[in-house]
Write a structure and sequence with these properties.
The chain has 627 residues and is mostly helical. It has 30 helices and 4 strands. The chain starts with 6 loop residues before the first helix and ends with a helix.
Length: 627
């Protein structure tokens, strides 16, 4: 009987048998965010299912993000499909593409379009750095050597494809060095006039420069005599180019030409505003400005000393005004929001709230509010989108109605937060409600009652040995604290759950980074709340919590105290104050009771004391006396 090849060998043979056009088209059509179109679905799933009618079983194929996706496979191929990991698949694809790139032109002639596809997908799917750098070198030669009537459009299309990939996946792995990025920026700058002819391409240009500004790569030691790119000068040059592109778009708007951004382009520009705001804030605080310097090559990695602070207004403010103007001038984006899914609406509102002015944000509030009214939140992902909208609206003046609608939506689908494996979201909701203004206290209290009732009815509470117990304990104590602060009575079941999480395991030992915060809230609820139904269990839980709190403040607290916020420090002081007062009162009562037991009664007290009544005589005794 012929032995079947190993999964690695079978996949390698399958990839090697594909023509280049089929291979690159299949890679380019795959997605990093959609599991149904991932690289694994295109290659591992195809390997396991050679024929449409041969797939009868089910196997778990790894996703790029670490999860799994069910793909129909033959029973004998299920183990083989699951045995090939995502890094192994990327290694095989990198080796195959590297062979194609190194092929002699007589055997395989790669065009500029082919090289741009290879380079863009190498960046997007995190292929090997060797493939990325080799392809980038060949891509640069092909870009500079293109000729003909359509040379400009070919260059723009090829560079735009690579820039778009860099906007999403730049950074993280060391696919490119600072020299590679500097060369790519130089290629784009040399074709500046071509990019500024189109508004949409100019927006992509801004997003690419912002991605280079936000990336963090390791700086390698320069080899003697070689030019090395300075990251600081490169980022400052990109900032100047963003300013120039922003001025071009502003002039276009002033001339009456609409920009006609889509929702994806709007979110991309809002992300640029956030990146530039962070970079310019750090840059201003460290007094590093190089607006007058246009070169970004140097022979050593020592920064130049002749830097001066840029006196021009921050670029992120100019871009924010441009985005705000775009939102206010065109109502098509608002109409698009009405038809969006919850995930899309949350993404747009978060982007706009973080980058635009208040007037533009409020224009999006009403359509997003309508999306929340009709939304069905049945899973953790949808609940996360609702929380995202609520957090964004909480910090916008005038968006309280949207915040109320989001909180009501959470209250309607509160079962998602207490059905297991979503305790982190429950803690996030409690943190959201903690920041709500006092004017919305009734809405917050209504949501807290719904959370308490759902938690009391939940049948899937994690055990102390479960990996979810730490997030569960944090969520429970945050909810109990909110119930106390908002004046909502805690149910008996809620008290039992609180006692259980305190008695389960030491909070400081097993609570991780949030252990001190959890401990402080436990002490605050146990000391400041009303007497619990089970007073003995409350006293035992309080003793355990206060013993750990004393350790927290002692010299052996291992530095946990600085991790507390101002509100948590006030809770801790209040807890110790209440505990001392309660202990002192209990000691006084015991002392008074002891004195009463040890002191003999005075003659007046003895005379005033009731005398025992003798039992009545029986009928037989009376008869005997008469006799």
């Amino acid at each position: 009987m012929k032995a079947s090849p190993s999964p690695w060998t079978a996949l390698q043979e399958h990839i090697a048998s594909l023509p280049f056009d089929v291979l690159i088209r299949r890679i380019h059509s795959s997605s990093r965010r959609n599991p149904a179109r991932s690289l694994e679905a295109h290659f591992v799933g195809v390997l396991a299912c050679p024929a449409p009618g041969a797939c009868q079983g089910q196997a778990e194929v790894p996703r790029p993000c670490g999860g799994t996706r069910a793909v129909a496979v033959a029973p004998g191929e299920a183990a083989r499909a699951a045995a090939v990991s995502s890094p192994q698949l990327r290694e095989l694809l990198s080796q195959r593409l590297l062979q194609d790139v190194r092929q002699p032109r007589a055997r395989l002639q790669l065009s500029l379009d082919d090289l741009s596809l290879i380079l863009a997908n190498a960046v997007r799917h995190k292929f090997s750095p060797q493939l990325t750098r080799t392809t980038l070198r060949l891509f640069t030669d092909a870009l500079n050597g293109v000729r003909g009537r359509d040379a400009a459009s070919q260059q723009i299309e090829a560079l735009s494809r690579v820039m778009e990939a860099c906007c999403d996946e730049l950074g993280g792995d060391a696919l490119m060095t600072w020299d590679d990025l500097a060369g790519l920026v130089a290629m784009v700058e040399q074709r500046w006039a071509l990019f500024t002819k189109s508004n949409s391409v100019c927006c992509l240009l801004i997003q690419f420069f912002a991605a280079v500004i936000a990336v963090e790569l390791s700086t390698e030691a320069p080899a003697p005599g070689l030019l090395k790119a300075d990251p600081v000068l490169l980022k400052d040059r990109c900032l100047q180019l963003v300013r120039g592109a922003t001025d071009f778009l502003a002039d276009t708007v002033e001339a009456g030409v609409p920009l006609t951004w889509s929702s994806a382009e709007l979110q991309g520009m809002c992300a640029v505003v956030r990146r530039l705001r962070h970079y310019e804030t750090v840059r201003s605080s460290s007094q590093l400005g190089s607006s007058g310097r246009v070169r970004f090559w140097k022979r050593t990695t020592v920064p130049a000393s002749a830097e001066h602070v840029d006196s021009a207004p921050p670029v992120h403010r100019q871009l924010s005004r441009l985005v705000t103007t775009q939102v206010l001038c065109h109502s098509r984006l608002l109409n698009d929001v009405q038809a969006m899914t919850l995930e899309q609406a949350a993404g747009v509102f978060y982007a706009v709230s973080s980058a635009c002015g208040t007037e533009a944000i409020l224009r999006f509030a009403l359509p997003v509010q309508n999306v929340l009214r009709r939304a069905v939140v049945a899973d953790a992902a949808s609940m996360g989108q609702v929380i995202c909208i609520a957090e964004a609206s909480l910090h916008v003046e005038g968006a309280s109605l949207l915040f109320v609608e989001a909180v009501r939506c959470i209250g309607r689908f509160v079962f998602v937060l207490t059905s297991g494996a979503t305790w982190g979201l429950l803690a996030g909701v409690c943190a959201l409600l903690e920041g709500a203004p006092l004017s919305l206290r009734a809405t917050v209290a209504e949501c807290l009652r719904a959370l308490q009732n759902s938690l009391a009815k939940s049948q899937r509470l994690p055990s102390p040995a479960s990996p979810e117990f730490a997030s569960f304990r944090l969520a429970v104590v945050m909810l109990a604290t909110l119930l106390l602060q908002q004046g909502v009575p805690a149910s008996t079941r809620m008290e039992e759950i609180l006692h259980g999480v305190v008695e389960a395991a030491p909070v400081l030992r097993d609570g991780g980074e949030r252990g001190p915060a959890v401990l402080v809230r436990c002490c605050f609820v146990l000391t400041a709340g009303r007497p619990h139904a089970n007073a003995a269990r409350q006293a035992r839980a309080l003793r355990l919590a206060m013993a750990e709190a004393t350790q927290l403040l002692s010299d052996d607290g291992n530095g946990h105290a600085p991790q507390l916020t101002g509100a948590e420090r006030r809770m801790l002081r209040s807890s110790f104050k209440q505990f001392r007062q309660a202990s002192a009162h209990a000691g006084e009562e015991r002392q008074v009771e002891g004195q009463h037991a040890a002191t003999p009664p005075s003659p007046r007290e003895a005379a005033a004391a009731p005398q025992p009544t003798p039992p009545p005589a029986s009928n037989s005794a009376k008869t005997a006396g008469r006799a």
